[in-house]
Amino acid sequence: MPMRPSKEWVAIKMAERGGRGSGGHGSLDKSITLPPDEIFRNLENAKRFAIDIGGSLTKLAYYSTVQHKVARVRSFDHSGKDIEHEPLYEISVQEEITARLHFIKFENTYIETCLDFIKDHLVNTETKVIKATGGGAYKFKDLIEKKLGLKVDKEDVMTCLIKGCNFVLKNIPHEVFAYQKDSDTEFRFQTNHPNIFPYLLVNIGSGVSIVKVETEDKFEWIGGSSIGGGTFWGLGALLTKTKKFDELLQLASKGQHTNVDMLVKDVYGGAYQTLGLSGNLIASSFGKSTTADKEFSKEDMAKSLLHMISNDIGQLACLYAKLHNLDKIYFGGFFIRGHPVTMRTITYSINFFSKGEVQALFLRHEGYLGAIGAFLKGAEQDNPNQYSWGENYAGSSGLMSTSPDVFPMQRTRSGTFDMFEMDRLERPLVNLPLLKDPSTYIPDTVDLTDDAMARKYWLTCFEEALDGVAKRAAASQPDSIDASERAEKFRQKYWNKLQTLRQQPFAYGTLTVRSLLDTREHCLNEFNFPDPYSKVKQKENGIALKCFQSVIESLDSLGWEERQFALVKGLLAGNVFDWGAKAVSDVLESEPQFGFEEAKSKLQERPWLEDSYSQWLERLKEGPPHKCALIFADNSGIDIILGVFPFVRELLSRGTEVILACNSGPALNDVTYSESLIVTERIAAMDPVIQSALREEKLLLVQTGSSSPCLDLSRLDKGLAVLVRERETDLVIIEGMGRAIHTNYYAALKCESLKLAVIKNSWLADRLGGKIFSVIFKYEVPCK
């Protein structure tokens, strides 16, 4: 029996071929130098395949089942036991199977080696067919069928592109960007609109195809041009004797088109004021070549040619957009491929011809649209569109710099991604119905891609915390013999991600504190650390429950107005207990007796609390009770038990129904939905108000659909959204630094809202003009 080629073998073979058969471009393709364990991940569990083969690049898609560890909690049966010395609940780590989509991009030069590797590692595939699209689907049909033993079923290129485009637009936040060469940030990522239709898709391959997409299944080819990427390639080869597309673009990036093109000022001596034309506008492409008695450089001719073709495509696309009343044009095809000169010239052309009314937009995963669409065509019986999907940052390469002079060895011939992974989420995600305008909602407060000082601080902050997180992860699994080894792998992977983000902050879209936290959680899960803080939460929940009754008794002894202030102060003091904040974790580790009263004494209440709190108090005094309050909880232990639940109890006593929303999965020491069920059950056994509310369904516990320390109100569990509508929710309370400061600080809602948090970071407090442990209490009423 022949030996299976190892992943190391594939890397070596591909590197060898890169040196021989690719015209010297093997070193530029990052996919051939990936670490061995990053190539064809989880291939042994692949179930279904699709492939998109273009003129030079192959994009492979496959669906696999991924087995990973999840943390579960289960309530103990405490009947007849001394519960004082028993844990609150049992923690177990179980195996769970989830679905993942893998996408890999490599040069056609390596297709045979890759097919050999896939063939020898297929174990559990469920299909006898591979969906294929692209021109190469015909060229390589026999090779694919011979190597894989799968029947090639060819799909229409344009249909696959559109299906793929719809899929990424719906499932990936920050998929779309505008290119801005002269700004500090190359990419300006767009907010996901809840309704992606209609739009114009301009696919620039050898020629140009322009498609109007109206719905998921309704689209039409409305125009095109024979002058496209093939024209640039062909004429460029004639003019410069350069036959490789990327070399031609490299030449263009160094050229000056004004040396070759005739400008308006060359004809009229300046601007043409009557027609409002700038003197620097191109009057005639290659116009100077007929009058100047000299040789022109290859670089200048390539740049002139690029401008000529891009301007032609831009004007044509703009005319079609205006004709069909569309203001969004997505550009794709091998002519784009993330190259800066191309994106810049197309953007300029669209802006010029539309007078800024139409926007040229590009996609982070543009190179994978055909493969995604072909996969979706093959998986229609499973209806993948009924699920929500999320990008797995731990297994995705990230968008590379489009600057040809920066990190040239990291520039791939595909321009954007080498690998891309998406995980199927357990529950469908939708917008919070109470968002004032979902199309303009931006979860994150600070864009670190733009803010260089903040970016430097937070990247350093996450780097410095990394050793502690790795140590915590290993300690959370004391019975595992390889926990330390996996923790070190996690540390290395996340460190590498942080270094990538230092150089390319746009790698996964807009860089924010939320994305840094989420990437860390993805990396922890990648190495089977599903809940490093599970034991901490278990212990702190148990300790806080023992204090619950005395806290309630103390509150009940106060007068109404004094009690309202004590409730708010307790809610804020509870929020101090955040293991994700270094200033807090240092205190909690060095001072085990630090508790609820000590946290209250830390708070810097005024002046931030005063004005907004008085408005809130006035609302409680004068206004009718709220019909239903939605509360997004933050941390386990003292936060939810001694801070949130007394607040919930007061609302219930006023006649307000409460929806308490907690994370679906673990993140730091944030309370999860399953933990909240156990905690609430124990509280109900002690408190008749909570018990009655549960029985009468006036207190409802739900999951958010998130496993993040932050909160994206545009991606929430569909069941939560339905409940919010049914109960006519008219108050939203968001607590915690991650949920109310790093995200949602500026979120505009249709109803009243409270945003509460304690600032547990000295740098951030200083930036906001306060001190560490200053409080945020933000009561907002929507404008009528």
From TrEMBL:
Annotated Pfam families: ARMT1-like_dom (PF01937), Fumble (PF03630)
SUPFAM superfamilies, sorted: Actin-like ATPase domain, AF1104-like
GO biological process: coenzyme A biosynthetic process
Catalytic activity, reaction form: (R)-4'-phospho-S-sulfopantetheine + H2O = (R)-S-sulfopantetheine + phosphate; (R)-4'-phosphopantetheine sulfonate + H2O = (R)-pantetheine sulfonate + phosphate; (R)-4'-phosphopantetheine + H2O = (R)-pantetheine + phosphate
Cofactor requirements of the protein: Mn(2+); Ni(2+)
UniProt entry keywords in alphabetical sequence: Acetylation, ATP-binding, Coenzyme A biosynthesis, Cytoplasm, Hydrolase, Manganese, Metal-binding, Nickel, Nitration, Nucleotide-binding, Phosphoprotein
One GO cellular component term: cytosol
Subcellular location: Cytoplasm
Start and end residues of each Damage-control phosphatase ARMT1-like metal-binding domain: 462-770
Gene Ontology MF terms: ATP binding; hydrolase activity; metal ion binding; pantothenate kinase activity
Biological role: Phosphatase which shows a preference for 4'-phosphopantetheine and its oxidatively damaged forms (sulfonate or S-sulfonate), providing strong indirect evidence that the phosphatase activity pre-empts damage in the coenzyme A (CoA) pathway. Hydrolyzing excess 4'-phosphopantetheine could constitute a directed overflow mechanism to prevent its oxidation to the S-sulfonate, sulfonate, or other forms. Hydrolyzing 4'-phosphopantetheine sulfonate or S-sulfonate would forestall their conversion to inactive forms of CoA and acyl carrier protein.
Oligomer status and interactors: Homodimer. Interacts with PKM.
PANTHER family in UniProt: 4'-PHOSPHOPANTETHEINE PHOSPHATASE (PTHR12280:SF20), PANTOTHENATE KINASE (PTHR12280)
Family, per entry: In the N-terminal section; belongs to the type II pantothenate kinase family. Belongs to the type II pantothenate kinase family.
Alphabetical list of NCBIfam families matching this protein: panK_eukar
Name of the molecule in the record: 4'-phosphopantetheine phosphatase
Source organism per UniProt: Apteryx mantelli (North Island brown kiwi)
Lineage: Eukaryota, Metazoa, Chordata, Craniata, Vertebrata
